[in-house]
Design goal:
mainly beta, four-stranded antiparallel β-sheet, three-stranded antiparallel β-sheet, globular
Length: about 150
C-alpha cells in the first residue's frame, strides 16, 4: 500500500480542524442515538451561530478533560432552567411530554444484552420537538434543582 504524506496530512488536518469520529458508549441520547453508534462531529458547526434548543452537542467534561460528553441542548444563554418533581421547566414553562406508543420502544440492549426499561416520550421545548426516554429508575427518583439562569458562552 502506498500512502503519501499529503493524504496523511489532509486526514490529520480534517480530524483536528473539521470532523472527528466518535463511538457512542451509553444510551444517554436514546432513542435518537444508540449505544455503539458511530458518529461524525462537525467541529465548525458553531463558528458563526450558537447552539439551539434540541441540538445534540459534544463537549469536554470540565471535571475530566480526557472525557467527552454527548448531550442535548435544552436551554440557551439567558434561559432559566429548573427541575421540580422530575419535571423540567425552561423559562418558567413546564416542557410538554407526550407518551409515545409502547411499540416504538423496541429493545435497547446495553451491557451484555441487559435491557433498560423505560418510557418513550416526545418532548416539546419551544418550537423544537424530539424523542426522549425516561428509564424506570429515573421515574422513581425525585430530582429537583433550583432555578438557574444559563450564562452567556
Amino acid at each position: 500500500m502506498i500512502v503519501s504524506g499529503g493524504a496523511i496530512g489532509s486526514s490529520l488536518y480534517l480530524r483536528d480542524q473539521c470532523l472527528e469520529a466518535f463511538s457512542v458508549p451509553t444510551g444517554s441520547c436514546y432513542p435518537n442515538i444508540l449505544p455503539g453508534d458511530k458518529i461524525l462531529a462537525n467541529k465548525n458547526a458553531y463558528n458563526k451561530t450558537d447552539p439551539q434548543r434540541g441540538d445534540i452537542v459534544i463537549f469536554i467534561n470540565p471535571e475530566n478533560r480526557h472525557e467527552k460528553f454527548l448531550k442535548r441542548v435544552v436551554a440557551i444563554a439567558g434561559d432559566t432552567v429548573e427541575m421540580k418533581n422530575n419535571e423540567l421547566y425552561i423559562n418558567d414553562q413546564k416542557l410538554k411530554l407526550e407518551k409515545l406508543p409502547d411499540s416504538t420502544l423496541g429493545k435497547m440492549n446495553i451491557n451484555d444484552n441487559e435491557n433498560i426499561k423505560g418510557t418513550l416520550y416526545q418532548e416539546t421545548n419551544g418550537k423544537t420537538q424530539y424523542d426522549i426516554m425516561l428509564t424506570d429508575a429515573y421515574e422513581t427518583t425525585i430530582r429537583d434543582f433550583v432555578k438557574i439562569t444559563v450564562p452567556a458562552n
